[in-house]
Amino acid sequence: MSPATYRAGAFVQAAQQLGLDAVVGLDLPETLAEYWHVPLGLEFANIRTSVQRIVEYAREKPFAAILSVDDSATELAAYANMALGLANNSPQASEAARDKLLMRQLMSAGGAPCPIFRNFWLYEDPAWIASQVTYPCVLKPRRLSGSRGVIRADNAAEFTAAFGRLKRLLVAEGASEHETSILVEDFIPGFEVALEGLLTDGHLKVLTLFDKPDPLDGPFFEETIYITPSRLPAQTQQEIADCVATAAASLGLRTGPVHAELRVNERGPWMLEIAGRSIGGLCSTILEFGSGMCLEELILRHAIGEEVATLEREEHAAGVMMIPIPGAGILKGVQGVEAAKAVPLITGVEITAQLNNQLVPLPEGASYLGFIFARGDTPTEVEAAIRQAHQCLHFEIRRGIPVLNQGSAK
Predict the structure, then answer these.
(1) Is the pTM of this model over 0.85?
(2) Lower CB density within 10 Å: C or N end of the chain?
(3) Residue 122: which CATH number?
């Protein structure tokens, strides 16, 4: 996992509950790992050296399974499992689930509905590219996650501005403009859903389907509310599951958790992307299976070969809001947390942004202000509770002068 992941505690705690000896491999240089007493310091960008370290460690303490918690670790986990003869997705499939160009190419060849796409290099003239594409379109970096760098453009002027903004972001991340390309895709109208699933020998078990009730039409695509169970008709839900299964097969994903994002319109579901890991942030905390089993425990049981196909999500409706950052600045204060927690059906409010730290919204940013969790009898009442709780929150963000920003739901 990466050092900044939200999900470390959930996986480590689930391992402890199962009596498993979990070894955490962090994306840290070896010297820093030793300084911080991290058992296994790994550099995800240097796969060969990191695999060698894992293999050497396994000689003393053999592993039963190696899991990636974050996108950045999926390829390393695949190579390490392959080196140790453990079950996992192939390195090629793991790479395709991270690289949006490879993903699109394989999905198109495999029959998974996805938008028309083209690939362009950062060094190319944006004005020329703007004359070659269809509008509205969406510009995407190939490897960033969480909607970072994803920008809609409705005309050539917006495209040129978006291209420059994305280029600055990628160069700041260390990309070379002569070695880095971006995707430009046709914008697909419709609403979004997210599917959480588990693959066993290529067979997809749907764990849950999330509705995203807030529109995601751009220019940026910051996700907010996830609600489950889905309120879509059973036939539509089955079409979504079939679409995800086709996409997973086209990439060669065969085992472990998958998190898929789709858009749905009158022509059916369209694949946006599929990742070979579970849902991000703290969103998994609203999911329970069987007799109170959390998602991370389910994933660990599956990884060590236990039968989990019969486990179903508990019947209550649940939801989470990833609290969006309204604007750049320094977070100086948060009010209304207790009032938000007091809203009926709200089960928790976690403010993860740190006071006096810089806030960076999308498309450059990679985090949220925090999370709101709710549970109830129906998806509709859960959604209403989350929106009411969000209205209780006030964030003081200093943008040159103190600004009081009131939470507002769409």
Answers:
(1) yes
(2) C
(3) 3.30.1490.20
